[in-house]
Design goal:
This protein is an all-alpha fold. It has 6 helices and no strands.
Length: 99
């Protein structure tokens, strides 16, 4: 399963090219003000998001960049287990391919 996700993520990244990031996650990444955030890294992270999260889940997760406490609240919230599993898969995928 990880191989399939990796292939999907790499395909999504190849489609991104070297242009400006264009998704909710990449915009939040660039706007985060973190020192390592740049167009290349944020595009890569967006590719991982495209491979693992739906559009509405990406918009939800993008809010975590601005308010990390929201991620903690979501993780502990009722009825969010399925989303949190997908979010964790996204984070692991982004970490693995965007180094």
């Amino acid at each position: 399963m990880r191989i399939i996700i990796s292939i999907i993520a790499l395909s999504a990244l190849a489609a991104c090219g070297s242009g400006r990031p264009s998704g909710a996650i990449s915009r939040a990444c660039e706007a985060s003000g973190r020192p390592a955030a740049n167009a290349s890294l944020c595009s890569c992270v967006q590719g991982a998001a495209d491979a693992t999260l739906s559009g509405s889940e990406q918009r939800r997760a993008a809010k975590f960049f601005k308010d990390p406490q929201k991620a903690q609240d979501t993780r502990q919230g009722d009825g969010t287990a399925a989303f949190w599993r997908r979010y964790k898969a996204f984070a692991e995928q982004a970490e693995a391919i965007c180094r």
